[in-house]
Specification:
- The structure is a homodimer.
- By secondary structure, chain A is an alpha+beta fold.
- Chain A has helices at about 5-20, 30-35, 80-90, 100-110, 120-125, 130-150, 160-175, 240-255, 265-275, and strands at about 25, 45, 50-60, 65-70, 90-95, 115-120, 180, 185-190, 210-215, 215-220, 220-225, 225-230, 285-290, 295-300, 310-320, 325-335, 345.
- Chain A starts with a helix and ends in an 11-residue tail after the last strand.
- The interface of A and B includes residues 95, 103, 118, 163 and 167 of A.
């Protein structure tokens, strides 16, 4: 494991020890990956002295735990109970209440004899601010999505199904070096356009359709996300031009608000102002992005504090007119200080209304 | 929801009520799908009188639960606490200890005031024996995988990467109507062949390679799985012919043992006998398949009882020679009584050693 992972574990432990915790059990796969760089272990036990135990496989509760006393990796190991107890080296074990199942909680409690207390999303909170290497992975992931979309837009779209376009986009991202799609590529044509959650189906693209594409690549575990909406045919209808302009401006207002020290709901308020002026009841969604496509922070009024520098987020604005379709535009950006020029846009594919 | 789902919920409740449980909380997504046919809810509460509450979205623990008092579907709903308490209508609530997180357990306990007791995989046990409609979905899924593989074998393979072959297989399954791949298609060429867990990578297929493909389609949620190994080039080497024959015979022996009332480890013992006679230390794996690619029962000595009629299973035999590659053959079959002709083979693609 690289130095960066050791440093992350030390930061986690330092915070926990300060809170009276003797050892930490991490079970959320994405948190384990962030702390170790590997995704082949199912649980990680960090002791106060920095000692590390990795559990490669959870067995049925009655089997207890199987633990590896050395570096994480695949394969079975010795009886974990003494190891867990030794690694605990104290009566208080921090754990991830939002991930650990009740069955595993009981197995861990029995094996360690420790008092288990919730870590309260400690790893997720550490993951929120990214280092420049993490941001470079996100930048590469975003570029792969941009390339795939750019290539698709040069081909003939009429007559092809949403599902085929989605699969081609995924294949093109992999061609450009992606580990895979960050999430199943979404393509919505005609009446399906402008929706966040529409799954690509058997609808074929027709002349005059709005088509919304939402896609992202995964590169070294880091995921990007972008949505674009374009029109198929030579001349968009007036309502399409107008709706696209409104969503574009709302999303731009949201984007531009993403500077360090802004309030977490600044983007939502900015977009909402533009939509309301246009009389459009649209959807505004934003949150952190990194190893997960939706992670802390949430860009809304429920989030306290201020936006930090080096927090990558997605900001999406969508308007869907039932039966007609709509427009959705989403970007991945990194919060930066305004003196450094403000937010860094990672998904740089044009947001102009293209008529294809 | 269809009648079949109502009947499944009644069966679950009947068993639970007999065990002194007043209401049942189901949270495993695949179990919810089996009980309702929908995959848009995150929790399902079944009361003794058959009343149903579906929780569309878990919020943060401090938010409590959001519940829909009517049919499952997307969207928010009223304050769930009174609903949960009313639906409980008794002091004992069965829950899925192997799925529910500690955080949600605490939220549910606080909202209901009930005593929570583990359902002990009650839904998984009901899911083990399939009805003929479920088997027909599996049959269709298996056929989609067969078709995709058959088409691929007609094309030029030399020079293409494992990853590209895997993506093409997935695309072809979708072309044939699959919802998607049952799991990421695995392609292992040359020294990667014959392994169960090898993920398709950048290795290009070369003349003389063994190539192992493991794939399955997903159709209406039901998943098939098959593995085949073939040789690229006109003439397989003698060791390839011999190794393929040994694995083929071991896997056939395993398959033929899958009759109703057989011991759960009959397949493993049958395959192992052939492998041992050949002096090959191979891997034999088998388990149930359905909505999950690995579910109950496990075809090994740890499983008690006998195999039931209408239980679909996969049986895989693999031998991998480090540095050289190997052979893996896997099928999806349905356990049937011997008087009905024994196991029904769903993945009917040839298992002969093809030289392509």
């Amino acid at each position: 494991m690289a130095e960066v992972h050791t440093e992350r574990r030390e930061r986690l432990l330092a915070g926990c020890v300060a809170a009276g915790i003797d050892a930490v059990l991490v079970t959320r796969p994405v948190n384990i990956r962030w702390l170790t760089g590997v995704d082949t272990v199912q649980a990680l036990l960090l002791a106060r002295d920095g000692a590390l135990a990795a559990v490669a496989e959870w067995h049925r509760p009655q089997d207890g735990l199987t633990a590896l006393p050395t570096e994480p990796g695949p394969g079975p190991a010795a009886d974990p109970a003494p190891l867990l107890a030794a690694a605990c080296a104290g009566p208080v074990l921090g754990f991830e209440e939002h991930d650990l199942t009740v069955a595993r909680y009981r197995a861990v409690a029995a094996a360690t004899g420790a008092r288990l207390i919730d870590l309260d999303h400690a790893v997720e909170r550490l993951r929120t601010v990214k280092d420049e290497e993490e941001i470079s992975f996100l930048r590469i992931a975003a570029e792969m999505g941009d390339q795939a979309l750019g290539e698709l837009l040069e081909s003939i779209l009429v007559g092809r199904t949403e599902r085929h376009l989605a699969m081609e986009l995924e294949r093109r991202m992999v061609d450009h070096g992606a580990d895979g799609a960050a999430y199943p590529v979404r393509v919505g044509a005609g009446e399906h356009s402008g929706q966040a959650g529409h799954q690509a189906g058997d609808r074929r693209v027709e002349d005059g359709d709005f088509v919304t594409v939402s896609l992202g690549a995964c590169y070294r575990g880091y995921r990007s996300s972008a949505s674009r909406t374009f029109v198929v045919g030579l001349a968009p209808a007036d309502w399409q031009v107008e709706l696209h302009r409104q969503v574009f401006e709302a999303q731009r207002a949201a984007r531009e608000s993403l500077v360090a020290d802004a309030a977490p709901d600044a983007a939502e308020r900015a977009a909402r102002r533009v939509l309301e002026a246009a009389g459009q009841p649209g959807e505004v969604v934003g949150q952190g992005i990194g190893l997960e496509i939706a992670e802390a922070p949430r860009l809304g009024p429920q989030e306290l504090g201020k936006l930090d520098n080096r927090v990558p987020v997605t900001v999406a604005v969508g308007v869907h007119l039932p039966g007609r379709g709509g427009v959705r535009i989403e970007d991945t950006l990194v919060v930066r200080p305004s003196q450094d020029g403000g937010p860094e846009l990672l998904t740089i594919t044009t947001k102009e209304l293209l008529a294809l």
